[in-house]
Amino acid sequence: MVSIIKQLPVIASMALFFVAASARAQSPNHQPRPRIVVTTDPELDDNNSLIRFLLYSSDYQVEGLIYASSAFHWKGDGKGTKWYVPGREYSRFGLHLCPCESWRWAKNERFIHNAVEAYAKVYPNLKIHNPSYPSPDDLRSKIRYGNIEFDGDISKDSPGSDLIKSLMLDNKPGKLYITACGGGSTIARALKSIQEQYENTTEWEQIKRKISRKVVLLPSGDQDDTYASYIRPNWPDIEYRQFRGGPNYGYGAQLRAKKEDSVYMTSSWMKANVSDRGPLGAIYRVWGDGKQMVKGDIMDYFGIAGHTTDELRKMGYVVWLPVQEKGSWLGEGDDPTFMDMLGNGLRAYEDGSYGGWGGREIVERNTKNIFFQTGDTSQKAMAASLSTMTAQANKEASAMVFPDFFPAAQNDFAARLKWSVTPAYTGANHEPVVKIEGPLNVMASAGEKIRLNGAVTDPDGNTVTIKWWQFQVGTYAGKINILKSDAAQTEVEIPKDAVSGQTIHVVLEATDNGSPALTRYQRVIITVR
Asked: Model-level pTM?
């Protein structure tokens, strides 16, 4: 059972409080907007992730939108210089296409500009639904080209690396989160430029400590080896959050999706909620949409409809993922880099171990994302490798007792796309507002019982369903007893075997009955005395 709260026309707030006689505050009940830089290459699922990112730009401070190269995409210098790195995709699948002057990079590539221009068209609508959206001019001012000439090349500065360097060195408060949706060479170059400037000065140790405390890297794997070859050896104290266990947003997600998740990747759902939703939906990539990021790219067969896998291979395409239904989910593989930055109340940005819609940080920092590094490089072997990787991701998620956030994340994405085409606030659904009175970080003793009370309202007057649950990401490994988990006011029993210093995470979740249904949370972290 869960509690259902009916929001009256005059929105009623539950007067609820946090009561714990021995608890003391550790942090305020407030989430600031984290500063974030996106570096991304022109892979089609990066394009899709960027669209989702822009729809959540109300939740963070966008500091940079930077074109990056990777093992899969690089521009070349335009001077005829040829490039080759052993083991890249141009030398797999029986291919021997490089050394070459560029790889899978369109002439005058501007997919970031295109996304921001689409955002500009819907910005007036988005502002009606959330006034925190940044202006299109503000976003345009953050666009830069990074180290895009060659895969993994950090030999010289670029406008993108210069911007990242200036952000790393500034004195603004808080962490600086930097995604690597493509390769990390632009980030690595920014760090190398700082090292070259300060290493032989008396300021070096101070500068190095400052940046190591400030910068948090959010990678989609090490896609050009620059983390392994430069960043980690020279900046070992920079936090590196590689996420696992959360929703599968990647290529082929529908192949092993649970029944309750697969509906959100069908062609009918995608058409109704994404593809037909205005300018941003129009540039979002789905299976068989007739598009290619680079014309004639033999790796990009995803937009070609009406052909079987075997037919596509006979046409010269490298088919490593089985053909799916036209119009269905294609992929947003870089979503985990920023989905924990969202202001949905899970507070996942605060610490990589907390977990959220983007997953949870894994400890192994050597993990790479140079896809399908196997001895057998045939196309069938690549498809089998994808299946193995997906199964492993599902196994990890299950082992972590991780909630299934995919339906909530997809509904939220659909709602924001609807905002983008809806000029009246009353024409779309909006998320419930969830609060917990008092501090969100508290202390309690083993065996103690503490009372938790939240406050839930809905701006649209919808009925809201609430529940309390334990998010098992704390250092206390056991399960706790939550009394009346479906009530607004509940009590939590701290287990008698809990040890001093261990943490327990308790979440208040609220879901409205709007269309689509939207979910918000608030997390309390209890530290055992």
From this structure: 0.91
